Amino acid sequence: MSLDVALLRETFNRAKEENGGTKALGMSFYKRLFEKYPSVRPLFNTPPEEQHKKLMASLGAIVAGVEQPERLLPYLHAMGIRHLKYKTENAHYDAVGENLMAVLAEHLSKEGEWTQSMADTWQAAIGVVAKTMIEAADNPEAFREELGKHGYESDGFKRNDPAPWIDRATVSI
Ligand code: HEM
Description:
single chain, mainly alpha, Globin-like, 0% strand, globular, binds protoporphyrin IX containing FE
């Protein structure tokens, strides 16, 4: 696995600045996802104009927290468990990962380079994120105590925070 943290951060910063930033990247993400994987379309009730902000905020939190597992792991476990409510299946993670890789490659290769090491780093990061979310979704009971310690309910939501995908400890995008 080749997770180069500096490269992950550098590329995410570029994604925020280039080609219309996270709005363009996020909108392309859902456009391509629904075209290529139409079966997941019915799971989404929030329009892409809103949904993309949540996805991009969570990518921001992941990139910011990648070296602090004590913070990132509960965040990802809670997110995996919340996805049970959205009727996400484990098999969907490959589709979402493939889609994110494709739109990132397109977004970043317009104004600059998208190299093999960038692709390897993002692939590794997405793999860890998916594995961590799925692990919790497969056995939410095992994470109940950890979630409680970090202010989440056992369903992964926060009673007093309508936006649990924003990691308040980091700067939001
Ligand atoms: C890379 C892993 C993923 C990340 C980082 C991610 C991120 C998010 C975030 C931040 C939200 C906002 C709500 C919340 O945080 O509870 C969300 C909602 C959602 N996600 Fe994901 N997600 C991932 C994987 C997936 C997969 C594999 C699917 C399956 C198709 C999926 C489908 C959904 C749906 C249906 C919603 C609710 C949309 C709505 O409100 O209508 N996500 N996701």
